[in-house]
Design a protein that fits this description.
By secondary structure, this protein is an alpha/beta fold. It is 19% helix and 36% strand.
Length: 580
């Protein structure tokens, strides 16, 4: 039996620990232990996920113009969604026989140059041509990771079971929300963070079951509060009417006040709700989930990110309704026993080293396979041939490993090498969570995309946008507006943006000023308000005498609040005593 072991990551050269429960999982799914540390494994997976860098190009099958995450000069064919899902082509026609004189990943690279890829990752998405990584949704625009029956979602990320959501992040079962971050079951709210079951409220931090509240923190079951002070119904609405929420300048002042309020609020060590034996942040209804983030309705997970309705998985990002999935990234649904793979769309079982496959079983090293069984490198085999060849390939992967340009060794059990990703580092969400400069990225062996000259013809300079939404009419729709960052930031700035008709109507209805930033920059501004996807070991900061401890509380915990941050962070017991 294996015991806890210390290893050295072959990527960052730092120590990491493989625990006994990790070894148990590796033995269960018959894979060797990893040679990269958890953070380097996570970064490597994120290097394969381009969410926001989109291009106009021609579909290589129907020749119509489409929106794609791959540029026109991609070395492989790219099909629009309609063509990719159609019966007009068969991906097994691109199949190649395994060559034991070449390394496995060298042959994967050759296959990836010839097999058509889908332009955007979309699954059962209606009227959502400008959104990537979405499924089971309708009317989604420039949004990502929108699933589970959403409708009318704009400029948002990680949205489940919602309607009418604009510029939000990680929202569930909510309606009519703007600039909310990590919320559930809210209605008609703006600029809320870590708030649930709230109604008709603005600028809330960590509030639950509140209605008609403004600029408040740590409230429970409250109504008609301003700055945590109780008002009568009449006085509340009288004060709110004095605030012109449609003014851009005033809203910026309110945002600054809200930031000060957050820093003075009591912060629970982690946003964990209905969780048993779990660590991480932003967890809801989970059990035995360790070092996980943005996860709900799951159990027996480790190193998971943006996962829901899954169990018995490890090292998984952006996945739902699966079981026994390991070293995986992007969009699985109803999948079982998937390893070292990217984008198993739907109902895939017993698969390793695959990309963008659906409704298939027993496939190894395949791209864009649909409704097939027993396929290797996109070549069809019989069941007997498949079961005989796969163990030989695995042995060959260990006997002749792939070595990348930085000397990292890839044997069986490693996710795809980053240098084989079709994307540059700063095109992927790796740049969002683990940002690098161009020099740092290249030094670590990553590709980098230099800024292209856009040469937009700007209709409206940013400083010329009227301050108040009441002074703007429908003539603004589809005009090219300058982003105030002007491409000078490191936030995938598009330099300009447009206001579309549904968006304009939402701003008018909700009394919101027009944005001054492009959607990408707005997304990065929201990310800056999120805690990092890391945990630090800390002690509770509570020193109050009425909290059943003498002096400072001695409880220790794992938290995503780093020790150098200004927030006041309490353990669960002290937080409950203070808030309730």
């Amino acid at each position: 039996m294996n015991h806890e072991q210390n290893r050295i990551c072959q990527n960052c050269k730092k120590d990491f620990v493989i625990e006994q429960e990790d070894f148990n999982f590796y033995e269960k799914i018959k894979v060797p232990p990893p040679t990269f540390c958890p953070e380097c494994r996570f970064t490597r997976r994120l290097n394969w996920r381009n969410e926001r860098t989109l291009y106009k190009r021609v579909c290589d099958l129907c020749k119509n113009i489409t929106i794609s995450m791959y540029p026109a000069n991609a070395i492989f064919p790219v099909y629009c969604k309609k063509c990719w899902y159609s019966d007009k082509w068969d991906s097994t026609k691109y199949g190649i026989s395994f060559d034991f004189s070449k390394s496995f990943f060298q042959q994967w690279k050759e296959l990836s140059k010839i097999v058509p890829k889908i332009a955007l990752f979309q699954r059962n998405a209606i009227n959502s041509d400008y959104s990537n990584m979405v499924g089971e949704c309708k009317n989604v625009y420039l949004s990502v990771s929108v699933v589970l029956g959403c409708e009318n979602i704009f400029y948002s990320r990680a949205i489940d079971k919602c309607n009418n959501i604009f510029d939000c992040y990680n929202i569930k079962e909510s309606n009519n929300c703007f600039e909310d971050i990590e919320g559930e079951k809210n209605y008609n709210t703006q600029n809320t963070i870590y708030s649930r079951n709230c109604l008709d409220s603005y600028f809330l931090f960590d509030c639950v079951n509140c209605s008609h509240c403004f600029m408040c923190s740590n409230l429970r079951n409250s109504e008609f509060f301003i700055l945590n002070k109780k008002y009568s119904k009449e006085d509340y609405f009288s004060e709110i009417k004095k605030i012109n929420f449609g003014s851009k300048k005033l809203r910026e002042i309110l945002i600054n006040e809200f930031n000060l309020l957050k820093n003075k609020a009591i912060c629970r060590y982690a946003n964990i709700i209905k969780a048993v034996d779990s660590t991480g942040n932003d967890l809801l209804n989970v059990k035995n989930c360790k070092n996980c983030f943005e996860m709900h309705d799951s159990e027996n997970m480790k190193y998971g990110f943006r996962v829901f309705l899954e169990k018995d998985c490890m090292d998984v990002a952006f996945s739902g309704k699966g079981e026994l999935i390991y070293e995986y990234c992007t969009g699985s649904l109803n999948d079982y026993n998937i390893k070292f793979s990217y984008s198993a769309f739907d109902t895939v079982q017993n698969a390793e080293y695959i990309e963008s496959c659906i409704l298939s079983n027993n496939i190894f090293s395949c791209i864009s396979i649909k409704n097939k069984n027993y396929v290797i490198l996109n070549k069809q085999y019989t069941k007997e041939q498949y079961e005989e060849l796969v163990p030989k390939i695995i042995k060959h992967m260990n006997d002749m490993p792939y070595i990348d340009k930085k000397g990292r060794i890839y044997k069986y059990g490693e996710f795809f090498p980053t240098e084989l990703s079709p994307f540059c580092y700063n095109e992927t969400i790796a740049q969002e969570y683990f940002p690098l400069t161009k020099e740092q990225a290249i030094d670590q062996g990553y590709k980098w995309k230099d800024r292209e000259e856009r040469n937009y013809i700007i209709d409206i300079k940013n400083e010329d946008i009227p301050d108040d939404i009441k002074d703007i009419d429908e003539s603004i729709i589809n005009k090219v507006i300058e982003c105030s960052h002007k491409g000078e930031c490191n936030q995938q700035c598009t330099e300009a943006f447009k206001i579309i008709e549904p968006e304009f109507q939402f701003y008018k209805r909700m009394n919101l000023p027009l944005p001054k930033l492009c959607p990408n920059c707005r997304h990065y501004e929201r990310l800056a308000q999120r805690n990092p996807l890391k945990l630090w070991h800390r002690q509770c900061m509570c020193d109050k005498e009425n909290h059943n401890h003498e002096g400072r509380c001695e409880v220790e915990f794992e938290t995503s609040y780093s020790p150098d941050r200004p927030e006041i962070v309490y353990c669960e017991r002290c937080y409950q005593q203070e808030i309730y």
